[in-house]
Amino acid sequence: MAAEVEPHLFVILGATGDLSRKKLIPALYHLLEDRNLKDRCHVLGSSRSAVDEDHFRKTARESLEKAGFPVEEVGEWCGAWTHYHSLGESGKEFSSLKDRIEKLESELDLPGNRVLYLALPPAAVSGAIEGLGDAGLNRAPGWNRIVMEKPFGRDLDSARELNVLLRRFFKEDRIYRIDHYLGKQTVQNLLVFRFANTIFESLWNRGHIETVEIAVAESLGIEGRGMYYDRSGALRDIVQNHMMQLLALVGMEAPPQFSSRYIRDEKVKVLQSVAEIDPRHVVLGQYEKGEIGSSKVSGYREEEHIPSDSRTETYAALKLNIDNWRWQGVDFYLRTGKRLSRRVTRIVIRFRKPPLCLFKHFSGCILNSNHIMITLQPDESFHISFDVKKPEEPLRLKTENLHFHYKESFGPIPDSYQTLLLDIMKGDQTLFVRADEVEASWSICAPLLDAGIPVHSYEAGTWGPPEAEDLPPPKGGWLPFDS
Ligand code: BG6
Hints:
alpha/beta; Rossmann fold; Dihydrodipicolinate Reductase, domain 2; 2 domains; six-stranded parallel sheet; about 35% helix; binds 6-O-phosphono-beta-D-glucopyranose
């Protein structure tokens, strides 16, 4: 594994921000330590903050200690492998960044391979791409990879503009658009589950499947990110990216080869086949104060930086259809929300009932449909439900489950950022979103942003607004979240 990662400089723009401190630095350290790659990667943090290198190293060390890594080890790494360069008050001194990069590469005897990771607020992204490009940092003596965090645009037009801007300076095979859901082991496992097992793939179509439910429920609120979230909302924050990725992986055809090009070709085809969503099949909501577990939580409009008249949605439920051969007539239900009763991300594939109920003459004998429940978090697992006869007379059926729990078989699962960072270092784009994919998913979601869909209230700690029950219900009803 170590041989696949070439020595490089990992440049983080926005290195003093939350994403860098809480996610990137700990994930980088863990990955490099775990895989014995420390000597192949030097980290250069950069931001407009006028802090010096010692200060940057100190904050990096603190975030690693907070993440639970041993004090002495992280101290050594931060002292020798992390560096800092300020982009000046304007945040635009990219030529000086270029000089620093070249100097470091020569001092550290690095071959000129670079990762440029934009961990920046959305408003700063275009300026940084231009700044890097104009300073000539779109070229490198070795390889050069630029990493874009979500959100990628605010709507279809802005996503297209961002793609045009990126392509002015970088080729598509140098661009890594992150959707951290793709780094989750269970999400990647969807492909293995589907395409390495004949028993599932042969049933994976409209002939056998009645509905597909994709749910991303969170008990957390907006966690101090009011400024970002109020301009975003659930459709932009979760549906357009994470849920569209899950939809694409559930719906795609088998690629001709397991390669980034072919997998992404198939994903984009599914997204391009999604029929225009009827706004009447969309329910939006915003949480009011309530109780989660035994804790009282505030309503969305009481959160910091949220205007008291905000109508930003923190919940979205919708029904869509995929107009292609495999999925014609199958309803897909997507539901996501913050401050719901508990955290669960899962996909439920519900099969059609048998064509005939042989047991209908036995009173109380109800035939259930089989389902496969793929839980992505927090308890990564698969459950397959089926009916059995209860050992008693008269004949009665009971639904039982076959279970598989990841942790039981494999122990703790790596953080998604570690997976994604390693792939960036190796140059594998499979788990990153291509330009046409991001535009296809915006084409699905953007019309809903301007459709004037009402935003209903729901109490924190419930499963969303009661109006969601008015969506045309899945045949066979919703599978309760608590099941
Ligand atoms: C992020 C969203 O992309 O995903 C957050 O911006 C959300 O609002 C988070 O909480 C959910 O990620 P996970 O991995 O906890 O399901």
